[in-house]
Automatic annotation (TrEMBL):
InterPro entries: Methyltransf_11, SAM-dependent_MTases_sf. It comes from Eiseniibacteriota bacterium. This is Class I SAM-dependent methyltransferase. Pfam families: Methyltransf_11. It comes from the Bacteria. GO terms for biological process: methylation. One of its GO terms (molecular function) is S-adenosylmethionine-dependent methyltransferase activity. Keywords: Methyltransferase, Transferase. Residues 47-142 form the Methyltransferase type domain.
Length: 255
């Protein structure tokens, strides 16, 4: 796990500013839906896990009393804090934390959020239990992450594709696997919704500063994907630019 932690820190430390500026991480239908579904209250204390560029924390900050934004990578926290302070927001604080071993006591938070990050975590079952542990009784968990098809061959192809771009990628799970993580952690699922999010290939590859050779191989794997994978990723060319789709799940649950 230590080696993976170091790899995540290195990958995201090198690319922190890119994630702050990333349109795909700052906005999206699933984030809008998360904000719509969560019945945030002005006195709430919120924990945002793996905050990345700080976009989810920033979205909730006007609705609650306090947001604690955490990440395992200090450079990412520094970049997110500069971004947030530049927006004039003062009720977000930043702290380094491992998503699978949170440095907080039991029942501290009214809401725990985590968005498009768990596919980098070494143990998502433990991560889900940690979210439950730090949540107050009756509190909410709102999580978004990429998911893969239930078909095993497509699952393996897409995960290998992701890992070839970003070695710190561990695994995108299926929707059913995520639902089981939540139920095993004794979280009561209120909503589970799936979204397809278009990604510009060049922007996606550029987030991790891949080499020209690696980018060419990624393009080849995308354009020549087998039928089940092609159906899931939906590669298409728009005005000469290559786009494809990633699938996200949004789960809202209560303790």
């Amino acid at each position: 796990m230590t080696d993976l932690r170091d790899l995540v820190k290195r990958q995201f430390g090198l690319n922190a500013e890119r994630y702050v500026r990333s349109y795909d991480h700052s906005k999206g239908e699933s984030l809008d839906r998360m904000l719509e579904l969560v019945p945030a209250k002005p006195d709430w204390r919120v924990l945002d896990i793996a905050t990345g560029g700080g976009h989810t924390a920033l979205a909730f900050a006007p609705r609650v009393r306090e947001v604690i934004a955490t990440d395992i990578t200090q450079e990412m926290l520094d970049a997110a804090e500069r971004f947030v302070r530049g927006k004039g927001v003062r009720n977000i604080t930043f702290a380094e934390a491992d998503a699978c071993d949170l440095p907080f006591g039991a029942a501290e938070f009214d809401l725990v959020t985590c968005r498009v990050a768990p596919h980098h975590f070494p143990d998502c079952a433990r991560f889900t239990r940690e979210m439950t542990r730090v949540l107050k009784p009756g509190g909410y968990v709102a999580m978004i992450d990429n998911v893969v098809p239930e078909d095993r061959a497509a699952d393996e192809y897409i995960n290998a594709f992701e890992k070839f771009r970003d070695p710190s990628h561990v695994r995108s799970f299926t929707a059913n696997e995520w639902l089981k993580f939540f139920s095993d952690a004794r979280l009561e699922i209120e909503t589970a919704e799936v979204f397809r999010k278009a990604r510009d290939f060049e922007a996606w590859a550029g987030l991790q500063t891949v080499s020209g050779e690696r980018k060419a191989e990624l393009r080849r794997r995308l354009e020549h994907a087998p039928p089940g994978v092609a159906e899931a990723l939906g590669p298409e060319t728009r005005e000469g630019a290559l786009f494809f789709y990633l699938t996200e799940i949004l789960i809202l649950a209560r303790r």
